[in-house]
Amino acid sequence: MEIYVINLALHAQRWAAAWLQLTRVGLRPQRLPGVHGAWLPQQQRAVLYSEELNRRQYHQPLCEAEIGCYASHLAAWQRLLQSDAPCAAVLEDDVDVDASLPEVLRAIEALPGEWDMVKLIGRHQEKVAQAQPLCEGSSLVRYARVPSLTGGYVLHRRGARKLLQQRRPFGRPVDVDLRYWWECGLELYGVQPYPLREGPMASESSMVGRGIERSAAMRWRKLCQQAHYSWCNRRALRAQEQRALPGPGPASAAMTTTPAGVAQRLVPHAGHDAG
């Protein structure tokens, strides 16, 4: 599987750290030059980011770092389609890598059935709707609420085509847009426990950052959008209730909120390969 690491040119030390972590577990990453939002030509920015769409979809304008971050992920999706690879792992350069990552990637690559994206990073507490064994010590999950972190995921060519067709131009940050998976028919799953974690530089990441919201109108719009998201998400999940997860293992349904890493202990294992 190809592995793309998004990295801004002015952060060579992050690429060096990511390369070291990944090669230590036997993986061969490729550096994908990140897009610096402040350096985007106005014409290119207008093609990628729609202020009109932003006003309709999000509670505040995107900052330059958010625009650059989204543009970087778009470049990763395009690079996958330009290759012959069936899927690729897309990582940001501020994640910590667990030793389980190579086995998890092999298991995802071998998944039968239709899937578009599998997230490799998320929150400590996740709301999971279904889970089934993926590989030794890991489970494939369907989220009840998709987490917003985009530090790492595996993307299938099918998913890349859907995203590039539906998300240009964009109006939300990329991590928020992916939570609206039903808008582009994205078959989105996750792995628990996560093989990636936020690294020590994540809180000061150059990929995304903004000041504190001060506008009461923005806060009100955010509350309204959160309520609308919850309603749409519940409706989309109901439509998926009878659909099986990709893979051979039996799925466990209606799981409650659990710490990431607990889900695999709640699912019956079916031998070493299904583990």
Gist of the model:
The protein has 275 residues and is α+β, with helices and mostly antiparallel strands. It is built from 9 helices and 13 strands.
Could you characterize what this model shows?
This protein is an alpha+beta fold and 275 residues long. It has a single domain, classed as Spore Coat Polysaccharide Biosynthesis Protein SpsA, Chain A (Alpha-Beta Complex). The chain has helices at residues 12-24, 42-48, 51-57, 64-82, 101-109, 157-166, 174-179, 216-240, 271-274, and strands spanning 2-7, 29-33, 87-92, 95-97, 117-119, 125-126, 128-135, 138-143, 152-156, 188-192, 196-198, 252-253, 258-259. The protein has a nine-stranded mixed beta sheet, with helices on both faces. Strands 4-11 form a two-stranded antiparallel ribbon. The longest helix is centred in the C-terminal third of the chain and has 25 residues, at 216-240.
